[in-house]
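The aim of this short unit is practical: by the end, you should be able to scan a pair of folded records and say something sensible about each. We start with the first protein, listed as its amino acid sequence and then its structure tokens.
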Amino acid sequence: MTKGNRAEWDCTMLFYAILFSDCIHSLNPVVWSNVDKLRLFRNEEFAHIARGRLSDVEFQNAISKVENAFLALGLSTVKIQDVKTQTCFPTEQLIHVLKKVDDLKQEQKEQQRKTLEEQLNSEASSFCILPPKPSHDVANRDSDVSKIIEQLKALKNSTGLSYLYLSGNPGSGKSQIASLVANNFFDEVKGSTSFVMTLNAENSKTLMESYATFARHLKCPEYAVTNTLISKDLSTDEKIRSLRTLISTKIELYSSWLLIVDNVTNMSHLDGNLPDPGNGQCAKGQLLITTQDTASIPPSGSFIQHIPVSKGMEPHEAGSLLEMLSGFNDPEMEKEVARVLDYQPLAPASAATYVREVRKNKLTPNFGWDDFLKKLDQGKRSTTEAMLSGSNPSYKKSMTAATTLAVKKTITMDKVLEHTFHFLSVCAPHPLSLEIVVNYITKVNEELKDPEILATRICKCSLLLFEEDDSGVYMRVHQIVHDVINAVMKNFAENKELEAVDGVILSFYQVIGHALVEDDSHTLIRTKNIVPHLVTLSEIIDGLFSEEGITDAIKAGLSTPYDYRNYFQTLGHTCQKHCEFRSALRYFNATLRLTQCDDVFGDEDIVNAYGYIGTAHHALGHLQQAKECHDRALTTCLKKLGPEHIEVAYGYDNLGAVHHDLGDLQQAKKSHDRALTIRLKRLGPEHVDVAYSYNNLGTVHYALGDLLQAKECHDRALTIRLRKLVPEHVNVAYSYNNLGAVHHDLGDLLQAK
């Protein structure tokens, strides 16, 4: 415009020159107004509209505006009249031209889209997405992490996908170990194009959402991801497979990768939903799968390995975690608490959080680990777990809640493990021979008879721990698993409890029955691992076979009263040999109640029961109760069997031992004299039981100060034992020891030596 070449002006320039520039001065208002109307008409109806059409009425109104303006300006309207009366316009031709324009623009956009998509498909950037972090610090688990990293390196296979399974009970720290391993993996490959991704495989929905996140991190087309997620025609599994297809085209761009498949509760839900091992695009990757479903883990091989982590942290790691999270230091108690909590990561975290928060309360600033252990003893573990579970976004279930869910699910899905848990519910949380459990299952379920298959299925349960030594394979459970199993099994019908108790009793009886006829040392070795379970079982027996419940127990039980009597005596004697006298007393009391409530038993059975109870009371230091029991037994023996029956001799021996410990030595001597007289007459002078009587008499004479009589008795006992027993027998050693004590007090020190 400044150059004055009006041939280069457009409408905008023309209107500006007429209306707003200094080119024309004192413009007539009528002229100015009509020119401005033409300007506005041009802008509103044509210039600023990309596409448009006018109806007949709109067209006539527009023409009238232009015509009126031209008339007001004194301009010719001939051409306007031509347009106004025109009946045909080249609309179709214009539409055709516009379509060509649109097609060219669309073609250009498609080309741009393809170029951009090619750039996206060829672009790969590293990323690391780990499992959610808990709301608290975690232990480093250095030993476990190193072991798993070494296994991953050994599994690395350039020709195919490899799998490493981490199994464990709820709260064992599977996810956090996987996170620590993955973080280490990513640090080692930072120089290359690589990724770590976590899929939440708790259920199909969480898995699908994780795959969508995965696809976006790989920069798959957003429209494809979104369309898949919102599709109403696809099931969740179909959406997962569609997302997998998108992802597979991008994975091959990475030189190495690790995919964590976390929180798998049921391996069957993953069928077809994981990267295909036969897909060459996945050859550079590895899968780290965390699961409770140990039974479904494939056998180990060149590209599959399995590492269980149920045993938990190292003791020092658990102690350090307790100190770090609780905010105070008590090394000795931390060791004890860590042991009680079985070194399971979630358990110390819950415990430390609880103690820390309680100590913040002005009423309990000195609350410590001993107070916490008292809470556990009171059965308040779930209360102590609530504080952490309510504030932990990565694991909202408490240890108790998660374990309960796992136990219930296991019972529902596996009959073998249901029987196993029934067995464990009446046992202690101590190692237990796998063979005993397998034998129990074969007896309570006729359909389950193959011991090898049963053992294999039991060993694949992540809630159970296993250890092996020269005597066999042993299984055990963490304390919390034991507590949960007991709680869950209480909901079963009472006849189920009796069935389980009956089977457990028989299983233990069969294992230890023959051992009792062997020498004491061998018996102790063979039965030592059973005793903790016999102690727990004795408490259950004491309740089921109480005076109020014994009749119902006999009616509902699977064994006869006679069999129960034999079982309880055997289990009681085993407890007695291992100095578990209270448990022995429970078994012997149950034996007495059996003999008193059923006509199948005679006086001799009652005598034996009182004798066993008396010996248990004696061992516990209950001397008056022991004397009362042995008096009853002896009185019945004398009445029913006569004064010279061999059982009477045992009665006198038992009474003599009690009198000795009560300090009534003369009465003790009298009892042992009577026992010796009966045995000499009925058994002869060379019988080992006669030696036993001489030994008892010698002990009483020694206590009375009658050293020569004591020496004579112990000499006779030793002579018989040397003839009837091997020189290395423990009773021979007892005789030598007793003689040595007598020689010492006689002043014959060389002989004593």
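Turning to the second protein, read its sequence before its tokens, just as you did above.
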Amino acid sequence: MTLNLLGAGRSTIASTLVWFFWSLANNPNVENKILAELKSNPPASPQAHLYSEEEVNRLMYLHAAVLETLRLYPPSPINHKWAKEADTLPSGHRVRANTRVFFSVYSMARMEGTWGKDCEEFRPERWITEKGGIRLVPSHQFVTFNGGPRSCLGKEVSLIQLKMVAAAVLGRYKIQVVEGHSASFAVSTVLHMEHGLPVMISRRSA
């Protein structure tokens, strides 16, 4: 089970981190808010910039920024299900038994009826409640990790890994995307960035 979780999450986590840093490069106000949160919540070993699971779970804005990345750039942009028996979808469409039904996770995450008129914008605030916690979105709306009894077993592990890496990198380094680079999607089962993300890295001053 452990090896399966690590193997399944390797490429999806790498893909998400690429889109995360790309999103921050295009939204410096979000990066500044994350940096302010990191400064207000330093890890027990500040010199190493390594956060424990308990420490990283206190970083609500970082958590929201990671979820927003997963919404706009789901690692698995297309998913499908098999109909065990004939059924009728909420839309009224009849589905025959043994039919494979595909759905676009990418498109569902950009539906104005679900996410509002700013659905195309990278806005972590949409995930934060008035009390400062993380807003819970039903899994049938936010389907990046699948939904219902078929939800991804590695969801929580993936979120912790993403936040730990993001906090460690942002706390020590400034990431700048090479000027002129434009992002496009690579044709793959995982939403990779075509040609990767060329960046310049510089150490942050203390």
